[in-house]
Amino acid sequence: MVRAWFMDNDSSDQRLEHQLNPPQFLDLTDLYNKTGVEYFKLNAETFNSDGVLEKIRKDRGYSFEDEITCSKECLPDYENKLKNFFTEHLHTDEEIRFVIDGSGYFDVRNGEDDRWIRIEVIAGDMIVIPSGIYHRFTLDIKNYIRAKRYFVGEPVWLPYNRPAEEMSCRKEYLEKLKTGFAA
Fold first, then answer.
1. Which of 4, 13, 45, 128 has the most CB atoms around its CB within 10 Å?
2. What percent of the chain has pLDDT over 70?
3. What 3-state DSSP class applies to 21?
């Protein structure tokens, strides 16, 4: 099951699991209400045949998928890619990730006070990060994750580094924070 917690503002060690002692954990409802991030638990062993992922894809209109493996052995220009993934940014589309193997952290900004919330993902976790939210990704100390990426239509890979307050996706996201997210 996914874990999420508030972090302090020190990001000098991006792979550090808990920075606050003790960490302030959030349940999935709080995570959704504070950020709009959605979570699905899938079976990493049977997702190809059990129909759960296929139903999510159909219901949400995910028509494109690919797979990424992040490790020193598999990802070209590994160190620079990790630095880019960890740079605070947003996208104009949702970012959907389903972890097949390994583990890592997605950090998202809390809408109330702009604090970081760290989301630990492991095999079987699927998260949907809404468009317009500032976020970043890093590996944990295992330095390995294999994940599927999903998109509605053609994939859009462009990150927009902070600040990007004038972008329409950012304005729409901030409005949803005020009015509430609808799953």
1. 4
2. 92
3. coil
Beta-strand pair 125-129/95-109: antiparallel
Which of 125, 139, 114, 162 shows the shortest CA–CA distance to 13?
A: 139
- Whether the CB-CB separation of 37 and 127 falls below 8 Å is answered with yes
CA 133 to chain centre: 10
100 CB contacts (<8 Å, ≥6 apart)? 44, 47, 67, 123, 146, 147, 148
Q: What three-state secondary structure class fits 84?
A: helix
Give 24's pLDDT tier (boundaries 50, 70, 90). Answer: confident
pTM: 0.93
54-to-39, 40, 48, 57 alpha-carbon distances in Å: 16, 13, 8, 5
The answer on pLDDT for 157 being more than 90 is no
Q: Is the pLDDT of residue 136 over 80?
A: yes
Q: Which residue has the tokens 């996208």?
A: 91
74-111 residue pLDDT tens: 999 999 999 999 999 999 999 999 999 999 999 999 98
Q: Is the distance from CB of 89 to CB of 10 less than 8 angstroms? A: no
